[in-house]
Amino acid sequence: MNEAQYPIQLVARLTGLSAHVIRIWEQRYRAVEPQRTATRRRLYSQRDIERLNLLREVTHAGHSIGQVAQLPMAQLQKLVAASLNLQGRATHAVGETPAPSSFLDECVAAIKSLDGHALDDALKRAATALGALGLLQRVVAPLTQTLGELWREGTLTSAHEHFATATIRVFLGNLAKPFGAVDDAPVLIVATPAGQVHELGALLVGAIAANLGWQVTYLGTSLPAAEIAGAARQTRARAVALSLVYPEDDPRLEGELTLLRASLPGEVKLLVGGRAMAAYREALEKLGALPIGNLAQLGSTLDLLRKPKSKARQ
Amino acid sequence: MNEAQYPIQLVARLTGLSAHVIRIWEQRYRAVEPQRTATRRRLYSQRDIERLNLLREVTHAGHSIGQVAQLPMAQLQKLVAASLNLQGRATHAVGETPAPSSFLDECVAAIKSLDGHALDDALKRAATALGALGLLQRVVAPLTQTLGELWREGTLTSAHEHFATATIRVFLGNLAKPFGAVDDAPVLIVATPAGQVHELGALLVGAIAANLGWQVTYLGTSLPAAEIAGAARQTRARAVALSLVYPEDDPRLEGELTLLRASLPGEVKLLVGGRAMAAYREALEKLGALPIGNLAQLGSTLDLLRKPKSKARQ
DNA sequence: ATAATTTATACAAAAATTAGACAAACACAG
DNA sequence: CTGTGTTTGTCTAATTTTTGTATAAATTAT
Fold it and tell me: Do B184 and B194 meet the contact criterion of CB atoms below 8 Å apart?
C-alpha cells in the first residue's frame, strides 16, 4: 500500500482545490495527513485524493469544512449522497473506480430485498464515484441485463422488476435534467412503441441524451406510432429514439414502425436500439432507421445528429 | 451517533425556512434546540431538519407556530395528516395566497406543449409555495383529474398523458423520500392491481404516505395479486394501498382483489381508493378493505394504522 | 539558478451570533 | 365595528468565528 506518489501541485489540479487550501485544511483541521518525504514534502495517496474530492463536494454542498474535515470516508459519502437529493450533479472522480461490479451487486441485493432506500443509496454512491455516464454504462445498463436474466430464471418476480423500474426511473429522471434549459438544444423524443413494455432501456437513452446536451421529451412505454409522431411534430424534435426489449416477435410492431416513419417529418431521424432490435433489423433497414447497438454508438450517433443544424442555425 | 453537522445556512436551504426564522423559532419557542459548537454555532442533525420540515408544513397549513412548536414529532405528523382535511379552505397565514389554480394552469399548459422543463419548474415552485402536502392535494390531485377530463374530451392525446406521468413520476418520487430511513416506520406497499394502468393516483398515495412517516415500497402499475402479496410478505408490510382509476368495469378485477386479500397475512390492511373504486364497492366491502374516498381520508386512515406499533419517538 | 514546497503569519470576506426594533396579521373585549 | 394587546415574520447593527487567500523567509528539487 505504499502508493503515495502525488505531489501537492498535481493533487491541486486533480481535486480542483488550491494547494493553499489543501495545506490549510491539513494544518487547521487535519483533514488529510499525507505521507512525507525525508525532507517533509507531502506525498498524497489515491485515498487522500479521494478524500479531498469528497471534502470538496461536501463543503460545496454547504457544510462547513471545520465540521466535516475529520469525518470518516463513509460518513462523507453519505453526506454527498444526501446532498444529491436536491441537485443531481454528476462529478467525475479521479482514477479510483472502487470495484464497479460491487455497485451492481449492491443494487441487485437491494432489489431482491425490495429495499428502495438501499437501492437509491447505492445508485447515488455509484453516481458520485463513476460520474453520470459511468453510472449509466457500468451500473444501470448491466443492471437491466442482470435483471432480465434473473427474471427469466425465476429468481426475481415481476414485483421485483416493477419495483426496480420504479426506483431507477426516478433516479434516472433526476439524472436527465442536469442542465438549465438550453433553448437551442435539439429535441429528442424517447419512447417505446406500442406493445413494448420494458422501460429501463428508454430511460437510459433519455438520461444519456440529456447529459449530452439534448433536450429530452420522455414519453414512456407502449405508445402508438401516431402519438409519437404527434409529439415529435409538436416539439419540432430532431430525432426519435425507440427502445425495443421484450417482445421479440410482435407481428404488429413492424406495422407500427412503418407507420411511425411515415408519420414523421422526413428530416426527423429515427434511432432504434435495445435487445430486441436485432429481431426487426430488416424492417428497420428498409425504413432507414439508425440502429444503436450499444451505448457508445448511441453517444456518437447523438453527437453526429447534434451538429448539422446547430451550425446552420447559428 | 454523532450526526449533527448541518450549519444553519444549509438547513435553511433544505427546509425552505430562512435562517432568521429558524433562530427565532428556537429563541421564542424552543422549536428545535440544535447542538452547538464550542463557539456557540448551531449544528443541526437530520432529525432536527426533519422536525423543521414538519413544522413548516404544519404552520403552512395554518397552525400557529407558538402552539405547535413544542409538540413531539408524532403529534406533528398527525397534524400534517389532519391538515389534509382543510382542503376547501383557501386562505391562511401571511399574505401568500398564490392562487393555487395558477399553478394548475401552468402545469396544464406545460403538458399541452410537452415542455418537461416548464412542468418541472412549475411543480417545484408550487412545492416551495404550498409545501409538499399542499402541492399534492392542491395541484397534483386536481391535475390528475383535469388530465383525465382533457383526455376524455380529446384535447390531450395519450402521448401527453404519458409525458405528464413520466415527469410527475420523477417529481413525486423525489418528494417521497423526505429523509433518512426511519427504521421503525411501518411499511406500506403501493401498487395498482392487474389491469389498472393509471399510475398517478398510486404515486400520489406513495408520496403522501412517505411524507406522513411511512416507509413506502412502490411497485407501480398492473401487478398480479400474487406478486403484490409476495412483496407485502417479504417487506413485512403493515398495509397495502391500491389505486383504481381507469377500467371501471373489469370483470377480472374482483377476482384479483379477492385473491390478493386471501394471499395477504390477516393483519395486513388493504386500502383501496381512486375514481373507479366506487364501481367495485360491494366486492371491497366483502373483503374488509378500507375505502379511501379522498386524500383527507387517506391521511386519517394512515394515521390510525400507524399507531399500534410505534408510540413515542422524539 | 530557477522553480516548488514548507512553515508561519497576516488579512479580508463570508457566515453566524445576540439583542433589539418594527410592522402586519390576528384575537378578543367592549 | 373599533381599539388594544399579542403573535409572528422580517430587519438592522455590532460582534465574533470561520475560512479562503496572500505574503515572506527558509529549504529542497531539478
Answer: no
Tell me the CATH number at A12. Answer: 1.10.1660.10
Residue B121 belongs to some domain of the structure: no
Based on the fold, state whether residues A19 and A110 are members of the same structural domain.
no
In a domain? residue A284:
yes
Contact B260, B233 (CB under 8 A): no
Query: Number of folded domains in chain B?
Result: 2
Nucleic strand C under 7 Å from the C-beta of B228? no
| Residues of A with Cβ-Cβ distance to B119 under 8 angstroms | none
Domain containing B212 equals: 181-306
The alpha carbon of residue B224 and the mean position of all alpha carbons in its chain are separated, in whole angstroms, by: 24
- Pairs across A and B, CB distance < 8 A: 124
Whole-model pTM: value is 0.76
pLDDT in tens, B190-225: 999 998 888 889 999 999 998 888 999 999 999 999
Phi and psi, residue A145, nearest 5°: -65, -45
Task: List the grid coordinates of B73.
Answer: 414529532
The CATH number that applies at residue A192 is 3.40.50.280
Residue B287 exposure: Cα atoms within 13 Å on the Cβ side: 24
pLDDT tens track for A2-56: 666 899 999 999 999 999 999 999 999 999 999 999 999 999 999 999 999 999 9
